[in-house]
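Deliverable D4.2, example record:
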Amino acid sequence: MNTVEPIRDREIIAKIKEDLKKSSIRNYGLFVLGINTALRISDILKLKVGDLKKPNLYIRMTKTGKEITLPIDEYMRRELRPLMEGREDSDYLFPSRQKKTEGVRKSIDRSQAYRILKRATKKYGLHRVGTHTLRKTFAYHHYKDKKNVAVLMDLLGHQDEYVTLRYIGIAQDDINSSMRGWRL
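Output generated by the structure prediction step:
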């Protein structure tokens, strides 16, 4: 499996959000939720409309089984509101465009989420992109802003500080920075 990278450039993030908002509110919502939480794509895709109507999002993470509580702030509510309007609490937040099965429209799957993200980032020359890019983008910018690796480790479910810094690309950034201009 290829390693994916976070989207480091905030301007590119803003442009991707703008493009997605114009083309698909569902895809925009997926991107915004992904880059503003520490959730894996498997946990994002199982969310239902009703999950985001509460003050906090309570979720048992699929991979680890760990329960987490994430606050849903006003920004997130405002950005996801168009995606939720007129829909039942039991509807998946990111519905597939496929026909309903037994009256229920399924959620998109991870391969569709991957295609959405690849299309959205291709225009900006981003190549090492996958669904995990959303989680890594959140983590990278959270660390850059807060500088609190302990909180980030807990959010990501990591046991070691170095693993977290390597995961978000900070360790590689440091290596690149230290090698720039290095001569003997």
